[in-house]
Write a structure and sequence with these properties.
By secondary structure, this protein is mainly beta. Helix content is 8%, strand content 19%. It has helices at residues 8-13, 117-121, 187-190; strands at 16-17, 22-23, 26-28, 65-67, 84-88, 92-97, 141-146, 162-165, 171-173, 177-178, 184-185. It has a three-stranded antiparallel beta sheet, with no helix packed on it. The protein has a two-stranded antiparallel sheet with strand order 1-2. A two-stranded antiparallel ribbon has the order 3-4. Strand 10 (177-178) and strand 11 form a beta hairpin. It is globular. It starts with 7 loop residues before the first helix and ends in a 5-residue tail after the last helix.
Amino acid sequence: MAVVAPHPARAAEDVRGGGDGTLITRLRTPPTGTSIAAPARDTLFACKGGTLTRPGRPWIDAHGVIDVLKRPFVSGTVHWRKYLKVTRTATERRFKGNGLPNHPTGRFPVQKGTPAYKYYAEIPAHGYPNAAAIPIKPWNLDVTVPRDPSVRAQPTCIDQLTTGMALASGTFHLEVATDAEDRPVDPNAALPLDR
C-alpha cells in the first residue's frame, strides 16, 4: 500500500490559532545563538546547556521564520486508544495512563520514501538508528506532582525530556533536538510535524 503525504497547503489549512480560527502560516524560530545554558526570560534552561543553532531547512527564511505552507508533513493517520486517570489528594495530583494521545497522529516511525523521512533520518536518536525510527507507542505514565505547585526562588535546569502533561493524554517535551552534528536546534524548525 502506498503512503500518500497530505498536500502541504491543505494540511496547513487545518492549523488554526489565536482562538478566532485564523490560519497560521508563519512561525518564528529562536535566533541562532540563543543560550539554553542559563535561566533567561522567554527561553528554556536545559541541563545539557549549549546555544541553539538554526537548522538549514527550505521552509525557514533568513530571518528565522518558518513558512508552514513549505514544510512537508509526516504522512499517515493513526488513531490511538488513550488511557488517562487523574486523581487528587489534599497535597498531590497523580497522572496515570498509557501516554497515548486522544487524537489521530501521523505514522511514527516515519516511513521511508515519504517527504519527511530524510529530515528525521539525519538526526541521531539514543537507542534508535536515527530519529525516523522512533515510534509512538504506549508507555507507563505514572507521575505525581504537587496539587498546588509554587515557583522556586531559584531556577533549575530541565534535565528530562518530558516537561508537561495534557489532559488529552499526550505529553509535552523539552523543545530542543539535535542536528546531524549534535548541535541543539528548535525541533519545530528542524523537523516536519504531522497534521
